[in-house]
Amino acid sequence: MGSDVVKATRSLIAWGLLAAGLTGLNRWQTPPRGPWAEAGAHGVIVGSSQVWYALDAALLDSLSGWPPGSWTNRSMQGLSGAALLSEACAWVEAWPEGTGGVLVLECLAPEESGRVDWRLAGQIPAADFTRHAFASLPPLRASRSALEHGLMRATRGLHATLHPSADVPSAPPRRNRIWRGDSARVAELRMHEDRLRRVLSGEAHPPSYPAFLVNRLVAKCAQRGIELVPVIPATSPAPFLAPAAFKRPPVVLDGGMLPTPFSTPEYLCDPMHLNERGARRVTLEFWNQLAR
């Protein structure tokens, strides 16, 4: 028993020293944020891959009358909850001073598994991850997840050097395809649409979310004069609501039709993502709601 404790302590100290030694590497390895600033952008979209495929930044440039490159869709696959909100806060912090603009945020609740990966380690500060973990997980799991996250965050520079990430394409791939459809999957997607309707009407309870990060984001946007627009895809698997924090209700991305493009095969390129036709319809309807 005693030897196990000694081994665990030595291991922890070794990891701590390694983390401390790599702090400088992490500083230069962390990529700069806000590359859109040089293009004079005014609109940033942050969400999951559903939103990446659904909202066409180039079409929003045209609809808004802003110069090309003014809108950028920085959504990512698997981004949700605390990671998504941390990413949104980081974009606000990198926003060019005095420019204002629009930040579109997908309201997607976190996966409460305690799972940690290298991308999360890069996106969520250790203090925020620990606070969120202890608020949403049992204490033992939260402690383990927080420690793992802290070690991964401290050594993420070395990991990025040894395992460079692939370049993210500027536009979603496979958008020109049409999904052949699957009756079971279509039925599941339409169940998600119905659940969202019940959540918005108060008939069903929305999942929990890290309120402290939502409040931080709202405050940062207000300080910089950025309009925060919450959005929810019609087939979102875990939509959250924050009526006490957001000044406006979420915009539901439904293309103005029911069933929505998200559950209609001819508007999809795969079982989850919109194709070009679907993205155009949803983007046009989103802009109409935003412009009202």
Quick one: overall form?
globular
Q: What Rg do the Cα atoms give?
A: 20 Å
Spatial order of the strands forming the largest sheet: 2-1-3-4-5
Give the low-confidence spans: 19-35
CATH topology: Rossmann fold
Oligomeric state of shown chains: single chain
Number of helices: 12
Count of individual domains: 1
Percentage of residues in helical conformation: 40-55%
Give a short summary of the structure.
With 292 residues, this protein is an alpha/beta fold. Helix content is 49%, strand content 8%.
Descriptive overview:
The protein is of the alpha/beta class and 292 residues long. The chain has one domain: Rossmann fold, CATH 3.40.50. It is 49% helix and 8% strand. A five-stranded parallel sheet has the order 2-1-3-4-5, sandwiched between helices. It is globular, with a radius of gyration of 20 Å. Mean pLDDT is 81; it is low at 19-35.
List keywords for this structure.
292 residues; alpha/beta; Rossmann fold; five-stranded parallel beta sheet; 12 helices; 5 strands
Provide the fold topology.
Elements: H1 2-21, H2 23-29, E1 43-46, H3 49-54, H4 57-64, E2 71-73, H5 81-93, E3 101-106, H6 118-123, H7 126-136, H8 139-154, H9 156-162, H10 183-201, H11 211-224, E4 226-233, E5 251-253, H12 276-291
Parallel strand pairs: 1-2, 1-3, 3-4, 4-5
Helix pairs in contact: 2-9, 4-12, 5-11, 7-8
